[in-house]
Amino acid sequence: MKFxxxxxxxxxxxxxAQAQSMQIDASFPRALHQWNSTGFSADAGAIFGGQSFxxxxxxxxxxxxxxxxxxxxxVPMNETVNLAQLAYxxxxxxxxxxxxxxxxxxxxxVGAGIGGGLIRQxxxxxxxxxxxNGTSLNGASETKTEICYxxxxxxxxxxxxxxxxxxxxxxxxxxxxxxxxxxxxNTDTKTLEAGVTWRx
Length: 200
Fold this sequence. Notes:
- The chain is mainly beta.
- The protein has a domain at 23-61 and 81-113 and 144-199: Porin (Beta Barrel), CATH 2.40.160.20.
- Helices cover 4% and strands 67% of the residues.
- The chain is built from one helix and eleven strands.
- The chain has one helix at 7-15, and strands spanning 19-31, 40-48, 52-61, 64-69, 73-100, 103-123, 141-160, 163-174, 179-180, 183-184, 189-199.
- An eight-stranded antiparallel beta barrel has the order 1-2-3-5-6-7-8-11. A two-stranded antiparallel sheet has the order 9-10.
- Strand 2 (40-48) and strand 3 form a beta hairpin.
- The two termini are 36 Å apart.
């Protein structure tokens, strides 16, 4: 059983409790390998029980690289990745570093997300290719939607009681392979990210 199957269960449990506050996060995840780009991520939701966050998250990447088109080989391409997910985070305050207002100065967090991904590849190959009717592949594009999931972990430093900075790790993948131009788009990626969080 994949870990993200537990996400709706955790979210439903939180929904039975009363929200204590709202939270907005913004971060810049840096993909480490095939996406090889810095993206943007934002989420908004509610805090339950002081430690559980449930909300909606949007993540965007715009990597540039190559894709292996069958019978041609590596072809330059521009890729856009949009992920919209239901996100869950659990924070574990660490009391060894004191408090800022009503919040512990340091928190660890773990979480997961599941939702939809829209992946689009646009080829940037300006030459005609035999076998493609002598037409240029420049500007040719294909798009695929797929169920995607993520796992996150990191540390948050609260600067004041309702505002902090965080650094973390995020793993993203799709449930099924994403095939574009008859090649696997390799959606699994690992990112390091930094961002800010605001509670109100």
